[in-house]
C-alpha cells in the first residue's frame, strides 16, 4: 500500500509556505487468479495524517535561520512497522523564485540513508534549506539517532537536503497502534546574495508498510 502526501512549499520573499495536500492512492492487493487453493493474503492497513497542509517560514533575513515543522501521524497494525520517505518535487532544487525557476535556494547535501546516513550538524555559516527528523515530539520507535543525531541540541542535531528521489527518513520496525508521530523540522538560512522575491517549491512524503 502506498499513501502519498504532496507538499508544495511556498516561500514568500524570504518567507516560506509549505502547502500540503493529501492524496491517497488506491490500495492494490497482491492477489492473482490461478491455482492457489490454500494460501491467503493478509493486507496490512495503514493510515497517514499530517498536522497541516501549509508550513510558513515567514519572512526570512539573510544569515538568520528560520524554521518550520510538520507532524506526520501514522498508524498500522503491521508488525514490521512502516517507513516514511521524502523527496523534493523539482530536480534542481526544492525552492524556486516564483518569477524565475532558475533562481534557487540552495539545498543542503542530498539525504542518503545508507549506513549512518550523510546528515550533518548545522554550522553557523551554513546557508541552505535543510530538514531533519526532530527527536522531541517524535515517537522513540520512529527516531534514528544515528541518522538525525543523539539529541536536538545545535551541536548534535543533524540536517540533510531533500533528495530528488524518495529516500527513507523514518523506519519503524514495530506496529504503530494507536498512531505514532514523527516530527520533521525544516530549517532555512539564505545567503546575502539570495535575490529578493517570493519563493515556492514542493516535497512529497510517501508512507509504506514494511514487508
Ligand atoms: Ca529551479
Layout of secondary structure:
Elements: E1 2-11, E2 17-19, E3 21-24, E4 46-50, E5 54-56, E6 66-76, E7 82-88, E8 95-97, E9 100-105, E10 120-121, E11 129-134, H1 145-148, E12 158-159, E13 167-171, E14 176-188, E15 199-209
Antiparallel strand pairs: 1-2, 1-3, 1-15, 2-5, 4-6, 6-14, 7-13, 7-15, 8-9, 8-15, 10-12, 11-14
Bound molecules: calcium ion (CA).
Features of the shown structure:
15 strands, globular, binds calcium ion, 211 residues, four-stranded antiparallel beta sheet, mainly beta
Q: What's the β-strand tally?
A: 15
Identify every distinct bound molecule in the structure, by name, code or SMILES.
calcium ion
Name the overall outline. Answer: globular
Beta-strand content bin:
35-45%
The total tally of domains equals: 1
* Total helical elements: 1
Radius of gyration: 18 Å
Order of helices and strands: EEEEEEEEEEEHEEEE
C-alpha end-to-end distance: 10 Å
Q: Give the % helix.
A: under 10%
**Which regions contain 5 or more consecutive residues with pLDDT less than 50?**
1-33
Q: Report mean pLDDT, rounded to a whole number.
A: 83
- Specify the biggest β-sheet: 9 strands, antiparallel
Structural class based on helices, strands and sheet pairing: mainly beta
